[in-house]
Amino acid sequence: MLLLLNFFLLVTFSNVAAVQPSFGIDPVNKTFLLDGQPFQYMAGEIHYFRIPHKKWDDRLKRVRSMGLNAITVPIPWNLHQFEEDDEPQFSGDMDLSKFITLAQSNNLYVILRIGPFISAEWDNGGLPWWLLRKKTLQKYRSNDTVFIQQVTQWWGHLLPKIFPHMRRNNGPVIMVQVEHLYGSLGICDKDYLDQLEALAKHHLGNDVVLFTTDYPVLQTMDCGTSKTMFATVSIEPVENPAQLVAWHNIQQAFAQGPFVASHFVIGKAKLWGINTTFPATDDEIVTTSKIAYSMNGSISYSVIHGGTSFGFWSGSVGQYPVVTSHDMGAPISENGDLTTLFMKLRFWINGLSDWAYPPTSIPINIPKTKYPDVEMMIFDSIQGFILGNDPECWISTETPRTAEYIRHGYGYMYYNATFLDCGNLYIPSFAEDAYIYLNKNFIGTLFSRFGNIHNNTMQITGCLDQPNLLEIMIDMGGRESTMYPNPSRGIMGDVYMNNATLQGWYSCEVPIIPYQLSRIEDVHKMISYPRNLTAIREGALNPNVYIGNMHLKVQPVDTYIDTTGWGKGVISINQYTIGRYWGSVGPQKTLYIPGDFLVKGTNLIMFYEFEGESGACGTGTTCNAKFSDTPIFTW
Ligand SMILES: *[C@@H]1O[C@H](CO)[C@@H](O)[C@H](O)[C@H]1NC(C)=O
Ligand SMILES: *[C@@H]1O[C@H](CO)[C@@H](O)[C@H](O)[C@H]1NC(C)=O
Ligand SMILES: *[C@@H]1O[C@H](CO)[C@@H](O)[C@H](O)[C@H]1NC(C)=O
Ligand SMILES: *[C@@H]1O[C@H](CO)[C@@H](O)[C@H](O)[C@H]1NC(C)=O
Ligand SMILES: *[C@@H]1O[C@H](CO)[C@@H](O)[C@H](O)[C@H]1NC(C)=O
Ligand SMILES: *[C@@H]1O[C@H](CO)[C@@H](O)[C@H](O)[C@H]1NC(C)=O
Ligand SMILES: *[C@@H]1O[C@H](CO)[C@@H](O)[C@H](O)[C@H]1NC(C)=O
Ligand SMILES: *[C@@H]1O[C@H](CO)[C@@H](O)[C@H](O)[C@H]1NC(C)=O
C-alpha cells in the first residue's frame, strides 16, 4: 500500500515535470492551473523562524503526513536584516532557500508571504525596529519615500533568492502574498499596493501570481484589494455553512478565480496576563474544511505548526505581550507531537477519493525528557552585571533616548541620571516595565502594560544629602504585531522629579548576549569587575542574574525548563536565548528547549530574573532550575 502510494506521488510529480512548469489562474473556470492542469491546495502556515533548522525536515514531514499539499510561509524582514546597515542574512536558521528546497523534497508546494508586514504575532509584525528611527512608517506608505526605498532594497535582496524556486523554474513556489490583512488598517492606500506589486513583478516576473488577504467584509475588501492582484480571504471556523457561502460570495465579488481562504484561522496565540480561548471546536474546523473543499476552494490553515518565539521575537497583540510558546493549539504542537485535531483532519483527508495528495505515514514522536534539577547560583545583580559588561551608552542632557535612537533593537535598556531632592518621580511615557533604583538600591517597579494598567509615578524617599543616583532598567517587551506604525521602546520623552525635568542622562543598551562559554568558571573568569556577593544575596528579591551548569552524560533530547517559582525575565542556554518567561503572571510556565540547543557534556544556563524569584530558591542561597517532559500552562 505504501509502495503504491509513493508510486502514485512519483507519477503525479513526474507528469507535471514533463510539461512546461507554470502556475496561474483560469478566471473563466475559476480554478488555479498548475502546469496547465486544474489545481486546488490545502496548505498549512508554518514559520521556519520559529523552528531550529535541524528540525525543519521533521516538521515538514509531519505537515505532509496530514495530507496537505502546500505550506504558507511568512518572511520576517526584521529577522533577516537585524541592523539597518547589515547585508540581509540567509544562513542557518534563516536559510529560507533551504527551507523551500526541503518543502519541495517533501512534496509540498510553497506559498510565500513576503509582507513587508506579516503580523504573525512577531515583533513589529516583521518590520525592523530601525525603521522606527528613521521617522518613517507613515500611514500613507506610497508617500513615504524612505520606507519605499528600504522595502525596495530589502526585496532587492530577498526576491532574487526566491526567483529560482518559482514554479516556472521548476520550483515549488506557486503564489506570493503581498502585505497581510491590509484592508483592516482602513488606510486604503492603493498606490502603495501598486508599488509593491510592481516591485514584486520586477523581480519575480510578470507571470507571478500575487495575492492579497483580507477579512471577508465589503469595507476591508474594498480597502485591501487591488485590481491586478488576486483577492483572497481570511476565515474562521463556521457553525453554519451559509456563513462560508456568504464569505465566498464576498471574495468572488473581488476575485476572478477560485474561492481561496488563504488564512483559515484555527487557533489563537496565548498572551501573558489574559485568557485567550479559541472558541471553535475541532469538529467545526473539520466541517468548515469540508465545505470549503466541496466549493473547490483552496485553504491554508493558520497555523499548522507554530513553533517557538525564541529570543526576544514575540510581539504583542492589543498591548498584551505574546507568550514565548507559539503552539497556538495547532494540529502539530510546539514540540512536534500530533494533536487530536491533526488526527481528525488527517482522517477526513484520507477519505477523499478525489484528493491527489493523500496522507503519508505519520512520523514517530520525538523523545523528550524531564532532566534532574540544576542548581542555580546568584551571580550578580542585573544592574551590576550590565555595568560590568561595559554597555554602549548615549549621553544626553534633558531627555533620555529611546532604544531605537541608540540603535538597540530588543530586550532591555539601562538609564541613569542624578538629582538632588527626593520626591515624586514621574515617567509619562515608557515601554513596558521600569525597574527603579535609588543609590544602587532597588526601590520599585513602574509599568505600562496590558493597555489599561499603568503606574508611571512613585514617591521616592530616603535621599542622601548629596547628588542621588537614579537608575532605571527597562524591560522593552515585544512590539505590537497587529497594526502599525508603532511607538518606540525604552523611555520616550522627559522624566520628572517634583515636576522638574531630570537632567544629564545615560541611555544604555543592555547586552544580554548568550555566552558561547559553557562552564560557570569561564564566566567568572570573563567577568573581571568586583562583586559583593554578600550584598547581592541580601538583595535576592531584586533583579538578579542566576547561573548554573547542566551536565549531560548522553546525547541530549528535547525538554522543557519549568519557571515555577521564578518571576519574570529571560533564560539563555549555551548560545541560545530560550525566550521570555513570566511565571508570576502566566499562563506559560515551561519553556521549550529543543535537544538541538543542548550538548552532551556541560551546558550553561542563565536566568535574567527581574521580579525576584518566588520560591525557586527555598530559604538558602542556592536555587533550582527544574525541568519537565511536558508543557505546563496554567490556563
Ligand atoms: C475551462 O475548462 C474546460 C474543460 O476543462 C476547457 O475546455 C476550457 O478550455 C476551460 N476554459 C478556459 C478559459 O480555460
Ligand atoms: C501624498 O503626497 C501627495 C503629494 O505631496 C499629496 O498630494 C497627497 O495628498 C498625499 N496622499 C496622502 C494620502 O497623504
Ligand atoms: C483564565 O481562566 C482560567 C480558567 O478559567 C482561570 O483559572 C484563570 O484565573 C484566568 N486567568 C486570568 C488572568 O483571567
Ligand atoms: C468543482 O469542480 C468540479 C470539477 O471541475 C465541477 O464539476 C464542480 O461543479 C465544481 N464545484 C463548484 C461548487 O464549483
Ligand atoms: C551611568 O552609567 C554609565 C554607564 O555605565 C556610567 O559610566 C556612569 O558613571 C553612570 N553614572 C553615574 C552617576 O553613576
Ligand atoms: C505604583 O508603583 C509604586 C512603586 O512600585 C508603588 O509604590 C505604588 O503604590 C504604585 N501605585 C499604584 C497606584 O499602584
Ligand atoms: C506638579 O504640578 C501639578 C500641576 O501642574 C501640581 O498639581 C502638583 O502639585 C505639582 N507637584 C509638585 C510636587 O510640585
Ligand atoms: C558587602 O556587602 C555587605 C552587606 O551589604 C557589607 O556589609 C559589606 O561591607 C560589603 N563589603 C564590601 C567590601 O563592600
Summarize the structure.
With 635 residues, the chain is of the alpha+beta class. Helix content is 22%, strand content 27%. It has three domains: 37-350, TIM Barrel; 374-379 and 516-628, Galactose-binding domain-like (Jelly Rolls, Sandwich); 390-509, Jelly Rolls, CATH 2.60.120.
- Count of individual helical segments: 13
Q: On the 0-100 scale, what is the average pLDDT?
A: 92
Question: For the record, what is the CATH homologous superfamily label of the largest domain?
Answer: Glycosidases
Looking at the chains present, what oligomeric state does this protein adopt? single chain
Uncertain runs: 1-17
Number of strands: 34
Q: Can you list the strand order of the major beta sheet?
A: 4-5-6-7-8-9-10-11
The overall number of domains is 3
Bound molecule kinds, no repeats: 2-acetamido-2-deoxy-beta-D-glucopyranose
Helix content: 10-25%
Class by alpha and beta content = alpha+beta
Described by the principal axes of the CA atoms, the overall outline is: globular
Briefly note the CATH topology name of the largest domain. TIM Barrel
GO biological process, one term: carbohydrate metabolic process
Family: Belongs to the glycosyl hydrolase 35 family.
InterPro entries: B-gal_1-like, BetaGal1-like_ABD1, BetaGal_gal-bd, Galactose-bd-like_sf, GH, Gly_Hdrlase_35_cat, Glycoside_Hdrlase_35
Keywords: Glycosidase, Hydrolase, Signal
